[in-house]
Structure formats: C-alpha cells, structure tokens
Amino acid sequence: MIGAGGVELEARGESARFLAEVLDGLGAPRKALSPKWLYDARGSALYELICQQPEYYPTRTELALLDLHADEIAEAVGPDALVFEYGAGSGRKTVRLLAALRRPAAYLPVDISPDALAQTAQALSRRFPRLVVRPVVADFTVGVALPDLDLPCARRLAFFPGSTIGNFDPPEAVSLLRRMAREAGPGGALLVGVDLPKDEGTLLRAYDDAHGVTAAFDLNLLARINRELAGDFMLSRFRHRAAWDARLSRIEMHLESHEAQLVHVAGAPFAFRAGETIHTESSYKWEPRAFDALAAIAGWRLDRTWTDERAWFSVRLYGR
Ligand code: AVI
C-alpha cells in the first residue's frame, strides 16, 4: 500500500512505462500493445458498458453463477477468509461474494488506477461497514506485495473473476496464478472465472457488438496515446477488428489501418501499411481440463466448479 505522495510517484512511473511500451510495441515487426493500457478512465467506463451489451455474455453468465451458487461457494471457501482481488473493477461480483461468505476477515483490492480503486473501496466499505477494506495501488501484472494486516483469518482467498485470466498468454497466466498461490499461502484458495470455448459467431459478436461499444473501447487506446504521449493518430483512419484463432483458442482484438500512413508518438515516427494492425488484446477461451492443468503448474488443485447450462462460462475453486 502506498500513501498520497507514493500514488503520485507511482503515476509518474506508470506513464513512463506506458511510453516505453508503446514505443516498443509500435516498433515491433508485428505491432502489439498490452491490453492493460485499454483501461484509462474512459476505457474503464466503456468496458462497464460492454458488460451491459446483449452480445457480451461473460458478465451476465458469471453473475448468474455467483448468485445461483453463492451458498455452495461460501460453504466450500469456509468462514473467516481474507479476500484479495487483482483488478478491482466495478465491485459488482465482489459484493456478491462478500455477501455470501461467512464473516470475511478483510478485503484487499489491488488495482493500477487509484481512482477506480478508491471508488470500489468506498462502495464496499459502505456496503459492509464492519469489513476491513485495504486498497492497494499496484500493477498486479508485474508483481505486488500485499500489506501484512496482522489479522486472524482462516484462509486467504484470491478472487479473480471476469475471465481476466484469459487476457494473459499461457506462460504469463501461469506466473500470475503462481504469484496468487504465493500470496494465498499454504491452505489458500483461488476462485476464478474462466470463459470457455464456444461457437465462433457468438464469440465474434461478443467482441464486436452491434452498438460499436467494443470498437470505441479499442479505438480509445489511440485517443489515450494521443492525449498522454503526444501522439497524432487519426482515429478515423483505423477500425476495430475481432478475430477468432481456433488453433490458439483465443479471440484477438486488432486496430487495423485503413491506408498506408505515418503516425508519430512523442516525436517518433511509425509507418503503417494499408491493412496492417496493432494487436491490442487476446482473450483465451479455456477448455476446463486445459485450464486445470495450467492451474496445476502454478500449484493449484481443483476443488469445485460451477458452470451454466450452455457450458459457456465456469467459476472454479482451487486449493493448495
Ligand atoms: C477484461 N476482459 C476479461 C475482457 C475480455 O472479455 O477479454 C475485456 C474485453 N475486451 C473486449 N471486450 C471485453
């Protein structure tokens, strides 16, 4: 956890990292940027809007699973758990979990954005006045040390909903799950939302909705680069494209250049060919067994699973 001055320093380090990664990513033979940069204030608001689109099934399906099986999940986790969550989000799923758990000992949300974190922490403190809530400003993709709260708890539970694990390539996913295992400690648990493979049409519609919200979310990355890194992207010269890679079992989001053009970021020139893309996100859809094998490499053994009737999404509980 860091104080007000620390938050400022962290923000400065953050924008230096953003610049370095953008220069690197646009300079690569296959242009790519990490999806974590999609989430500035506007990007986060657009993501919340995506979650409400009829085509975007993961949020609705996972919320329904958490509602339907709240008691079983609480029973399987056990009482007096300390819950930590990487990526605070809107807190809607967390409210469901914390309301179901018996006597949760504390809640530690970890997020890169101090504003989003403060909002979520405040909302949860209001909703659960007796719960100890300790927000941690940090980039969980590069590692984070949770503060020692010196609180008695029966078990440490890593909560990672939303199929966010799908946004990591398998080796990165393993290291993230391994870090969670380390933080959870012996006897700890992991409750994770995993999106499952399904027909291509459903997937493409979910990642390129009719109202163009996902397109706006993707293109907002260029607007962010223009604003924060003195870029001169003309957004009208790019379009959002979703593609399903069956071999890798992942949806990819790309920003495709309509034409040959030259773009600058912080004074550095980047040439685009017509049709060339920036790969902005992968969203892996895991076969349940394959995901269990991945989790096992990171030190987790499967305890219980909950899946919807269509087998589109799975909430999985692991122990160690
Ligand atoms: C946050 N993450 C799990 C979302 C996903 O489905 O991969 C991000 C997203 N990208 C486009 N739509 C939603």
Automatic annotation (TrEMBL):
The keyword Transmembrane does not apply. InterPro entries: EgtD (IPR035094), EgtD_Methyltrsf_superfamily (IPR051128), MeTrfase_dom (IPR019257), MeTrfase_EgtD-like (IPR017804), SAM-dependent_MTases_sf (IPR029063). Gene3D superfamilies: Vaccinia Virus protein VP39 (3.40.50.150). PANTHER family: ERGOTHIONEINE BIOSYNTHESIS PROTEIN 1. It holds the Pfam family Methyltransf_33. Residues 20-317 form the Histidine-specific methyltransferase SAM-dependent domain. Keywords: Methyltransferase, Transferase. This is Dimethylhistidine N-methyltransferase.
